[in-house]
User: What shape does this take?
Amino acid sequence: MTNASDFSLHGGATKLDGASAHNRTENFFEFCDVCKSFDDNAVLKNVSFSVRRGETCVIMGRSGVGKSVSLKHIMGFMKADSGRIFVDGTDVTDFSERQFESVRRKVTMVFQSGALFDSLTVGENIAFPLEKQPGLADEDVDAYVDKLAKMLEVDTVLDKLPGELSTGMRRAVAMARAFAQSPEAILFDEPTTMVDPIMAGHMGDLILRLKDAFHRTSIVVTHDTHLAKKLADSVVFLQEGRVAFFGPWDDFENSKDPFLHNFRAQDALIPALDVTL
Ligand SMILES: Nc1ncnc2c1ncn2[C@@H]1O[C@H](COP(=O)(O)OP(=O)(O)OP(=O)(O)O)[C@@H](O)[C@H]1O
Ligand SMILES: [Mg+2]
Assistant: This one.
């Protein structure tokens, strides 16, 4: 049985940022009336939602609706035209690139591609964030890498290079590396696309295992209702740039709204198509 204390390398999330100790708002993430356009393409229209500390929010919606754009605002890769964005109780909307460095230490994003270092082995990739931590002995780093690798079932490929692995395996390594950073929150962009339905189910199980072990605030962007059902405490459903639904998963699942009903029904029917998405 795995529990969070087995993985507490840093003695708790607040060590990453002393400010969090006196600033613990109920919501870890908050979007308030966020608007974003690219030329005349209005992508986000007064988007508001929040994610409670320790919970997992799933952002769903059709392709091109602004799911990835929303995540990029949190990481500071994009700036809102109007509205406010709060991370860990702090308004980061007007943060400079330099100020976003502290946000990126607290919040890590697992990219679809994995974004691993191709010339480093799997083990070195996972250890990478740990090497920057002062005062960590080599044995501690090795032990933590082993624990994360076992948890994500990549312990047999620690000496391989990322190029030798399948997409699913690479993504599992990327998740291990993200958790090695001991983030307070983690963002997953489409963790189950470009793999077959069995691997997609497996990725979902791995994320669920991480959720149960670490209790980190998470946002998972996906169109995959199977994954959402497994992970979501709350759901944001984007439609034509607006939040068409925000609330608990059970309410989303039971909603009579014809559009939401259609989306759920269609997606539930097409797991096999995940392979090509
Ligand atoms: N850097 C950019 N410059 C111009 N337009 C952009 C940029 N990034 C995103 N867009 C536009 O914003 C819209 C939303 O893109 P986004 O990537 O958030 O979609 P998505 O909901 O993540 O879709 P998918 O499910 O296909 O990943 C799209 O119309 C896209 O063309
Ligand atoms: Mg996207």
Residues 24-276 form a domain with the Rossmann fold fold (CATH 3.40.50.300). Residues 1-8, 10-21, 272-277 have pLDDT under 50 and may be disordered.
